[in-house]
Write a structure and sequence with these properties.
This protein is of the alpha/beta class. It is built from 6 helices and 6 strands. It has helices at residues 39-52, 66-76, 102-108, 110-118, 131-148, 159-170, and strands spanning 11-17, 59-62, 83-85, 151-157, 186-193, 196-205. Strand 5 (186-193) and strand 6 (196-205) form a beta hairpin.
Length: 217
C-alpha cells in the first residue's frame, strides 16, 4: 500500500519483539513496567542474534524500556553503540493496572475487565492508554524513522507496538490486532521501495526452519 514517504532508494526493516521478561508465572498486565529480560529471554535473543548475524545492519532502533534495550544490545554485539532509543516505541501504558494479576483485575473490576474485552480498541485502564492511543503514538514515530532510512535496519519493540505497526501497514482494522502473532524474540520484515511499504514476514522466531509468510497479503 502507498504511504506518505519520501522516495529514496528503499530499506528493509527487521521489526523485533524483545525476549521474555516475565518475572514469575502469574499472568500480569505488564505495559510499561521496566523489566529486564529473564534467563529464557536472553537465550531467545542469543538464538535470534545467530539468525541475524550475517545481515549487515546499518542501524538499530529500540524502545527505551530495559527489556528492549537489552535485546538490542545482544543483537548488536560489538555494534551496541549504534543503538538509538525512541521513547515513543514504548509498550502501551496500562496505568493503574500495570503489574497487577489479570485474575485480580477481573475479580476487583469485573465491568472494566469485560469492557476492555468488548472495546479493545478504545478502552483505556485508569491512567493508561487505549490501543487507538498507542497506534496514534507509535505509527508516526515508525514512519519518521522509515522515511529517513536507507539500507537494512532493526527496530526492537513490544508486542502491542509491533501489532499496531503491522496493522497499519497491512491495512488491517485495529480490532484485529490480536490476530497478528508476536512471540517473544520474533522478527517481522517490512520492506520499503520508494513510497510503498510491504510486510514480507510475520513472527519468524530465530532458529526455526524457514521464514513465515505473512498470510495477510
Amino acid at each position: 500500500m502507498t504511504m506518505p514517504l519520501s522516495a529514496v532508494d528503499g530499506c528493509t526493516f527487521y521489526l523485533v519483539r524483545h525476549g521474555d521478561a516475565r518475572q514469575d508465572q502469574v499472568k500480569r498486565y505488564i505495559g510499561q513496567l521496566d523489566l529486564s529480560l529473564n534467563a529464557v529471554g536472553r537465550t531467545q535473543i542469543r538464538t535470534l542474534q545467530k539468525t541475524l548475524a550475517e545481515i549487515d545492519f546499518a542501524r538499530i532502533y529500540s524502545s527505551d524500556l530495559r527489556r528492549c534495550q537489552e535485546t538490542a544490545r545482544i543483537i548488536a554485539g560489538p555494534l551496541a553503540k549504534s543503538i538509538r532509543t525512541v521513547p515513543n516505541l514504548r509498550e502501551i501504558s496500562l496505568g493503574e493496572w500495570e503489574g497487577q494479576p489479570m485474575a485480580s483485575i477481573r475479580e476487583r473490576f469485573p465491568e472494566e475487565y469485560r469492557r476492555r474485552g468488548r472495546e479493545i480498541v478504545d478502552f483505556a485502564p485508569p491512567g493508561g492508554e487505549s490501543f487507538r492511543d498507542l497506534q496514534a503514538r507509535v505509527v508516526p514515530a515508525f514512519l519518521e524513522i522509515i522515511n529517513r532510512a536507507n539500507g537494512v535496519m532493526i527496530l526492537v519493540a513490544h508486542a502491542g507496538v509491533n501489532r499496531t505497526i503491522l496493522c497499519h501497514v497491512l491495512g488491517l482494522p485495529l480490532h484485529e490486532l490480536f490476530l497478528v502473532p508476536q512471540d517473544f524474540g520474533c522478527f517481522n520484515i517490512i520492506e520499503r521501495r520508494g513510497e510503498q511499504l510491504k510486510v514480507k514476514t510475520i513472527n519468524h522466531v530465530g532458529g526455526s526452519s524457514g521464514l513465515c509468510d505473512t498470510g495477510f497479503m
